[in-house]
Design a protein that fits this description.
This protein has 82 residues and is of the alpha+beta class. The protein is built from three helices and two strands. The longest helix is centred in the C-terminal third of the chain and has 14 residues.
Length: 82
């Protein structure tokens, strides 16, 4: 139910906005629910803390929050799983 709410609120499109151009991604491919303030850093599952991001922008947000070195292991795991 929460996933449907987040996607509906986002218009079923990625909500990432490029800080330089101000343009929204808008991709509808591989949408994921992202925590604006990550749960690992004290964020909640409150709808106000959730947004829809495409997989690429969700991973980018994770790299910004946790660092590229930490997230490199997840990128490797994702590639070996496919």
């Amino acid at each position: 139910a929460m996933r449907r709410l987040v996607f509906h609120r986002a218009g079923h499109a990625c909500e990432f906005v490029d800080p330089e151009s101000g343009r929204r991604c808008g991709s509808r491919f591989q949408l994921e629910v992202d925590h604006v303030q990550p749960r690992a850093l004290g964020g909640s599952d409150d709808p106000a803390n959730l947004r829809a991001l495409c997989r690429s922008h969700n991973f980018r947000a994770a790299e910004l929050a946790f660092g590229k070195k930490h997230m490199a292991a997840f990128r490797t795991l994702e590639r070996t799983a496919n």
